[in-house]
Fold Tat pathway signal protein.
Amino acid sequence: MDIAAFRALEPLCWRAPSAHNTQPWRLRYEPGAIHLGWDAADTLPVADPTGRDLRLSLGAFVETCLIVAADAGLRLEYAADHDERHRRVGWLRPARHPYQTPFRTTDVWERRTDRGRLADGPEQDTLAALDAVARQAGGGVRAVPEPARLAALLRTADRQQYADPAVVAELRRWLRLDPTHPSYDVDGLSDRCLALSRPAATGLRAALAAYPLLRPLGLPRLLAAADDPLARGGAVLVLIAPADLDRTGQVEVGRVLMRIWLTLHTAGLAAHPLSQLIDVAATRTALGALLDVAPDRLLHVARVGRPNRPAPRSARRVGGA
Ligand SMILES: Cc1cc2nc3c(=O)[nH]c(=O)nc-3n(C[C@H](O)[C@H](O)[C@H](O)COP(=O)(O)O)c2cc1C
């Protein structure tokens, strides 16, 4: 049966992206269908209090499961059935035909977030293709004109986040800045994936360890000024959602986000999300004004461009690297 055969492919599905690489998804095999839910221990209640990034990540996982199953010739479909109390987004169940997708398991395996140098941005035709993907869910993709103008907004967002002890404590829980960390090859954000040199990783570890002491002395400002991703090139793209999106709709947009990232990957491009711009109310409002879009419709922001070499592969709890 296709459901039983899918179990062997599950490790490939875990290559889906998730905020802070928490990998919140969980599959439970039941007679006739697979329960697709999440584990509260792998959510980000402080950085993602509304669960927006959780649902985008779960949607990315749904899409990845469907692509991996289809590439193996398995006939599976997804049925949304959101239930917050049982921590469920929906079900994977047998279908009459395999899922129709242009993407392959190799795309899922090779795609990576790239926080390094990115040349160029997407060509007009790629941008149009990305926008068409988003339109399937009633949304759109927009490029920010003159992305360098976002540098000040990005510093403001970073400073505000680093000034919040709860945000920093949660981030530290998922940082893997030393290869001897017991979860270095399991989950979270590694020094390599964050494109930090050894001295930079050691410095960040020391600064965050002394955070309570250094915070009043201006550490948040220093940390925010320490990195300027926009100087590493690329365009900045914003994923715009339909108005009044509910939780099921956010999971659907997560599926769209996965298709967007895979469209970029197959065009030789990579994405580096800059979620802080929409996590912080003031910068979210400013970005909305810049694009003339209601701030609550901004669902995801990323720097996008052509990498000059493959980024390091991030860790996974299942299936490894
Ligand atoms: C909804 C969502 C939000 C994300 N936000 C950020 C972000 O603000 N900054 C960042 O550097 N990476 C961000 N990421 C990228 C994840 O950290 C990345 O997907 C994860 O570490 C796994 O790495 P991979 O994408 O290379 O497989 C985000 C990913 C998702 C799905």
Notes: The mean pLDDT is 96. Residues 163 and 218 are 9 Å apart (CA to CA). Residues 17-21, 53, 56-57, 60, 112-113, 115, 189, 272-276, 314 surround flavin mononucleotide (CB under 6 Å).
